[in-house]
Amino acid sequence: SSAPAEIEITPQDTGPEINPHIYGQFIEHLGGVIYDGIWVGRNSKIPNIDGIRKQFVDDLKRIAVPNFRWPGGCFADGYHWRDGIGDPSRRPRTYNYWQASMPQGLDDTEPNHFGIHEFMNLCRLSGAEPYLAANMGSGSPQEFHDWVSYTNAPVGTVSLANERAMNGSKEPFGVRFWGVGNESWGCGGDMTPQEYASLYRRFVTQFPAFPPKPFLIAVGPRGHSKDLDLGWTNGFFEAMQGHRTRVDGLSIHYYTDFRNSPEKVSTFDARGWYDVIREGLRTETVIEQHWAAMGKFDPDRHTKLIVDEWGVWYRPGEEITPAYILSQPLTLRDALHTAVTFDVFNRHADKIAMANVAQTINCIHSLFLAQGDRFARTPVYYVFEMYRNHMQSKLAAMNIRADELKVPSRSGSATIPGLSGSASVREKTLTVTLTNPSLDAPVAAQIRLTSGSITEGKGTILTHTEMTAGNTLDRPNEIKLSALPVVVRNNRVEISIPQRAIVAMELKIT
Ligand code: AHR
Predict the structure, then answer these.
(1) Ligand 1 atom 7: the closest Cα is on which residue?
(2) How many domains would you assign to the chain?
(3) What pTM was estimated for this model as a whole?
(4) Distance 255 CA to ligand 1 centre (A)
(5) CA-to-CA distance for 459 and 510, rounded, in angstroms?
(6) Which of 25, 26, 27, 28 to mutate to test the pocket of ligand 1 (most atoms within 8 A of CB)?
(7) Among the atoms of ligand 1, which is closest to the Cα of residue 309?
(8) pLDDT, tens digit, 9 for 90 and up, residues 61-73
(9) Has the ipTM of the complex gone over 0.85?
(10) Is 475 in the same domain as 486?
(11) Which helix or strand (DSSP H or E) is residue 461 part of?
(12) Alpha carbon 503 to chain centroid distance?
């Protein structure tokens, strides 16, 4: 039988605008992400626009992709931007320390076919804003500042602007988001928060003042550590006390880390299902705790959270091909994890200025898998499509009354909310997203407004009869979105949300 749920929404009680950048992307020179995933080359038979896979661009436009973080990840801290400019046939083949550090014996060289101009072209074609990560690991403040000048200086100022023009872009790229290093507690330099804070100040103090005004993002914690790594956040901000250097964003990396789980990725049981979704829900604790820690140092709340790497990371062994490291299979379970994570992000829109899924294609929590002329949208992709309307809408107060679910877990049993969701409003449209994580029972939900009327509605649903279902390169259409009829009766929406399902509704209100 169905589990009942009552949902009360107050569209007039609006919170902050949901920053579209929350629905952002992350791409790195790793395995099959850039080469073959995104970059197929100008002479490829695979349909492409200036070397970029066309299907990738088309689908990104469908989800109104807001940004790309590039070139890493750990790769960024070994990347020298000059290697990726100029005549592609003359670019050097350089050492990819990041791939070289992996035990799988990957190609440890980088051809540099995809550099800043190709990246900016991807942003332009898809309508995304660039978010660049500076090399703090093996680079210098000077190299960083030169990159800023190369990208942002108008022609007629510094010579680097003329060089950019000679390489094809007279107009400055206008890059606003700058990450200063990546995981400096690990691959980015194995630093203490105090060491990082002092280097951060050196990298930022002489930042070239070409427009636009930069949004500077400091390296933050490894949120999936057992103790949430609050020591990093506290240590960094303590070390920044008494200094004038600005920090606009603090990066958090929060992976649902199942690398050590013995289960196969594509065949799991109920416990595996719920464990992953529970970890997605834990995003809320990570955000709240780091936000509270930051508040002690930044009472005016200038610094916002940037969750610039998140997703479920499984154990290796089921990649598309071994060279495409981390190109793991994605299933319906990961779609539900995505949905509950987005609902957390939405509900904390006052704190989060950006989030970037790791990574868009052929890597970890991907929206797409690709190899040669084969291409698949994963279940995760469809959640981006379903949540698209939340972008730039205002968070609306929502109260969900549903029984908790008692579920099996690694430690025996646990409880999770029987229904998760968020609501947002733009003009006269209310967007409501809800997830029923139960493997057993549908939820019979009633949605009503505390004041005002619902006149009509439409919706979409993502579900499948098998919890382990996913899309592969051989079976790319196993899971896809379906239309969901939404009936409004007596000013209420009455809806049955099947087990293992995500629904998104657009309600017209007066
Ligand atoms: O996304 C893969 C890797 O995970 C990134 O390079 C790094 O920043 C993180 O550890």
Answers:
(1) 73
(2) 2
(3) 0.97
(4) 10
(5) 18
(6) 28
(7) 1
(8) 999 999 999 999 9
(9) yes
(10) yes
(11) strand 454-462
(12) 20
